[in-house]
Design a protein that fits this description.
The complex is a heterodimer of chains A (263) and B (299). Chain A is of the alpha/beta class and 263 residues long. Helices cover 23% and strands 18% of the residues of chain A. Chain B has a domain at 10-104 and 155-240: Glutaconate Coenzyme A-transferase. The chains are: A alpha/beta (263), B alpha/beta (299).
Chain lengths: 263, 299
């Protein structure tokens, strides 16, 4: 990375910067509805180091390298994306393209230790939920088939990092180990879980969630306390390298002009 | 002999949908939603509908709020940052209507199964709650290799409601931009009603035939409703009306808290009151509607 400065920034911005650093040039990625953090991360990578990125922005195949500013991270599903489209595909064709994609992203109401996620709702009676989520969206089939995916959420507490999801809308590593492939799911599974407190990945053997990076100012104890299951903790998790001023400038002046990540 | 016109008036739409029908709704979240058609069905207070919707928003939520819906099959109902989850959908799921859990890929597979007239289609929902909470999903033995596979039943639509840019009077429809899953809903439906920004001469369609997204074979009725997707966006024409959507969401949330007045006012003003699509636009404010052009008017 370029020179790092200690510019104050929000958790949403940190998460977007981490996502952007995982994306290589020449990859193929999709951005999703109501996912401002990963959309910002994809655009940041695109503007700074991945000019050849192919982006499926919902139905619109785009390359946004020449774009001045993104319209509004608070509304991804906007026809304003069409102005940048190099091709427009219907949703079924887009679904056929997912196995070729290097990265997709999903949010979650709940996440378990194997990266299984829930967008359906919280509660024990499906007909009388405590909280009803937006629905499975495209996540089920997409996370089953995409090469790799990241999960990102706006909070990290025992309320959303749970022993067992009340419902599962997208399978991560299933029950762990090789369960995902035994279920017959062809995609490569979840790689990272990104929260305002930490970045997690998964143990290569048992596929349990493992602390990878701490966000600035956060301790191992705080992350462990915030996680409703036993998180694997390596001897010395590294703090996340802070955003550079170039990353933050680009994020704020070209991508998140409305400050969705700064609220 | 003259070729038959498919153009009807919005007033005719109510008679084309019966209580208990399976109604398909096209578009995507808050883009290209057939809101003028939905308002017409809402005014008629159709009942016991099963709604099959591409990722949906307040058009479906309104139908739920007016108690028109007995079953919903949709992968999403919300308005992103304005309302991550739509209010009535969220509150009444399982209580006032049956919700069949589904994702985009599997919903399209159900429609495709009917279109192709095959008994089922395999999907990737194994390991998820969709298997348990969707009556049209089963897990069966994989006939080709060891293990199991989830399959979905075909889904036929009685009436599909779609929004597009233009059509000729014979029902040749052209979208501007994406057509999302509109083509699947149309092909899986017994009856298809398309609301368009403009009805244009057949010569216009023929001069741009590469742009025809739904040939007349798949379209039964065309209704001309300029700005008819409002408060949703229409590709190439106008943006989502954030303030109208926020006002709806506030009224619905107040209703759920026990203050029924704002939602009753909303229904009186925008559903039951206007009596025509032009009067609806006037109720919203024509200057406000005009200010929504894609590039104009800031945000």
């Amino acid at each position: 990375m370029n020179s790092t400065t200690s510019v104050a920034c929000t958790p949403g911005e940190l998460m977007a910067v981490f996502i952007s650093r995982q994306i290589r040039n020449d990859e193929y990625v999709a951005i999703g509805v109501n996912l401002p953090v990963s959309t910002a991360g994809v655009l940041l990578a695109h503007f700074l180091h991945a000019p050849d990125l192919r982006i499926s922005a919902l139905s619109y195949f785009t390359n946004l390298a020449g774009v001045d500013t993104f319209h509004d991270l608070g509304q991804i599903a906007s026809p304003r994306l069409a102005r940048w489209a190099e091709a427009v595909w219907p949703l079924d064709a887009l679904m056929y393209a997912v196995p070729r994609m290097d990265w997709c992203f999903t949010g979650a109401l709940q996440i378990d230790m194997h990266g299984n996620t829930n967008l359906i709702g919280v509660g024990d009676d499906h007909d009388n939920l405590t909280f009803r989520g937006p629905g499975a969206t495209g996540a089920t089939t997409v996370m089953a088939t995409v090469r790799r995916f990241m999960i990102h959420v706006g909070s990290h507490s025992p309320r959303n990092f749970v022993e067992k999801c009340d419902f599962v809308s997208a399978v991560g590593w299933g029950a762990g180990g090789d369960h995902r492939s035994r279920l017959g799911l062809p995609g490569g599974g979840p790689t990272y879980v990104i929260t305002p407190k930490a970045i997690m990945d998964f143990d290569e053997e048992n596929r349990r969630m493992r602390l990878k990076h701490l966000m600035p100012g956060i301790t191992v104890e705080e992350v462990a306390r915030s996680t409703g299951f036993e998180l694997l903790v390596p001897c010395l998790p590294e703090p996340m390298e802070p955003p550079s001023s170039e990353e933050l400038d680009t994020l704020r002046t070209k991508i998140d002009v409305k400050g969705v990540l700064r609220h | 002999m003259n070729r038959r016109s498919t153009v009807i008036s919005l007033d005719d739409v109510g008679d084309l949908v019966s209580d208990g029908d399976v109604v398909g709704i096209g578009g995507f979240v808050t883009t290209n939603k057939p809101c003028a058609l939905v308002r017409q069905l809402a005014m008629a207070r159709k009942r016991r509908l099963t709604v099959v919707a591409a990722p949906s928003s307040i058009e479906l939520d309104l139908m739920i709020g007016l108690d028109m819906v007995q079953e919903v099959i949709t992968p999403y109902c919300g308005a992103e940052s304005l309302a991550p989850v739509a209010p009535f959908y969220s509150h009444y799921a399982g209580r006032r209507f049956r919700l069949q859990e589904i994702d985009n890929g599997s919903l399209m597979a159900m429609l495709e199964a009917h279109i192709r007239r095959v008994p089922f289609m395999p999907v990737h929902v194994i390991g998820t709650s969709i298997v348990e909470y969707n009556e049209r999903v089963r897990v069966v033995e994989n006939p080709f290799k060891q293990g199991e596979v989830a399959v979905v039943r075909p889904l036929e639509i009685d009436v599909a409601l779609i929004h597009a840019m233009r059509a000729d009077k014979y029902g040749n429809v052209q979208h501007r931009g994406a057509h999302f899953m509109d083509h699947l809903l149309a092909q899986a439906a017994k009856k298809v009603i398309v609301q368009v920004e403009r009805v244009v001469p057949n010569e216009t369609i023929r001069s741009l035939s590469l742009e025809t997204s739904l040939p007349c074979e798949f379209v039964d009725y065309v209704v001309e409703t300029p700005f008819g997707a409002h408060p949703a966006a229409s590709q190439g024409f106008y943006r989502r009306d954030d303030r109208s959507i926020a006002a709806y969401v506030d009224a619905a949330r107040a209703h759920l808290r026990g203050d029924e007045q704002p939602f009753d006012d909303f229904v009186a003003r925008f559903i039951d009151g206007p009596g025509s699509h032009a009067a609806y636009c006037q109720a919203v404010g024509v200057d406000k509607v005009f200010s929504l052009s894609i590039e104009g008017g800031g945000d």
